Prior knowledge:
By secondary structure, the protein is α+β, with helices and mostly antiparallel strands. The protein is 46% helix and 18% strand. It has a 3-stranded antiparallel β-sheet with strand order 1-2-3. The protein has a 3-stranded antiparallel β-sheet with strand order 4-5-6. Helix 5 (163-172) packs across helix 6 (181-201) and helix 8 packs parallel to helix 9. It is elongated.
Amino acid sequence: EGATEAIVAVHGGSKGLGEMLGGIERLLAGGAAEAAAVDINSVHGSLLQRRDALGAGWDAEARQEDPSLPLAVEVAGPLGRAPLAEAAMVVAGQHSQLVGLLDRKQADALRELLQGLIATEIAEKVHRAGKFVDLMNGRLTSVATAHDVGVRLRWRRSPELDAPTARMVELLATRPDLRLEEDEHELRSLLSARLAEARNLEPDVPYRQLVAGTLDYKLWHELTVMVQRGGGSETRLSRRTPLSEGEKKIVTYLSLFAAVAASHDALAAQQPGPEHDRSGIARFVLLDDAFAKVSEDNHAALFGLLVDLDLDLVATSERLWGTHACVPQLAITEVIRDAELKAILLEHYHWDGATLARRETP
Length: 362
C-alpha cells in the first residue's frame, strides 16, 4: 500500500517472472524499512499527542506485558474498555447511525421548510422585490436631472451565481403549490448541499442561522443604477461614468427618492378609496443634515426632484433654506443659540414659491 514504483516485466517466460518477483522483493524490502522505523516509543509518543484531542470520557493506552508479544492499544470510554480495532468498529457504526438519523431529520426539516410558510414567503418576497423595482422605475421615467440625465434601476439575478445555486434560486422563486414532485426532490438536494457547505465554513453557527443565511434572497440578486443622457445609450453608473461629480450625486439621490416615492405608492395602494385620490396622505422623506456633501448650485435641482416625485420633505441643515422657485411652499424654523444668555430662540418663516416671510409667534 502506498507504493509508487511500478512492477514491469520486460521479458517473457521464466525470465519475466523473475523480474516481477524481484520487483516485489524490492517493494517488500522498502515496506519493511518503513515498518522498522515504528517502535514502542514512537507509539507511546503518538498516543500522548492524541490523548488531549480525545472527547470527554475517552482515553487510550498502550500495553505490552510480554516483550515477545505485539504492543496492544486499548481504548476506554462510554462503551467500556476494548482493543483499538474493536472500539473503532463500534464507534464507526454509531457514527454511521447518527449521520443517517441526522440526514433523515434534516430531510424532514427541509421538507417542512420548502412546503411551509417560509418557502411561500421567500417566493413572495422575490416577486414583491421585482414589483417594487417596477414601481421605482415607473416614478423614475417621469423625472430627469437638469442636464437631461435619466435613471433606471436594473434588478436581476446575479450573473455570478454558480449553476446549482441559480437553479435553487429559480425553484425557490416558484410558489410551493406550483412546484412538481421532481422539483421538490431537486430543490431539497440543492439546498442540502448548500447547507452542508455553510456548515463546513461555520461549524459552530446554529442551524437556524445557517438556514437564514442560505435563504437570504438579497444575496442572489443585484441592483444596478443605469443612467442615460438624452437619447444616448444606457450605461451602468460607476466612478468611470462620464458625469460630473454634481450629476453623480444628483443621480444617486434620485434613486433614493424614487425608492421612497415607490414605497409610499405601495402603501397608498393598500388604503381604501379611489386610487387617484391621495391628497390626504403624507409622503415624508426625512433627511438629517440634508445634502451636506452636495455643492450649493445643485440644491435647487434636488429640491425639484422631491417636488416632481410628490414627496414631503422634513430636513435639518446648517445652511439649507430651500427657498427655490421649484418648491411651492415650505415651513422653515431657524434655531438661534445665544451662548452668553444660554438660551435658544426659534424664528419661523414661510416660503410660498416666490417670497420668504417671517411668521410672528403667538
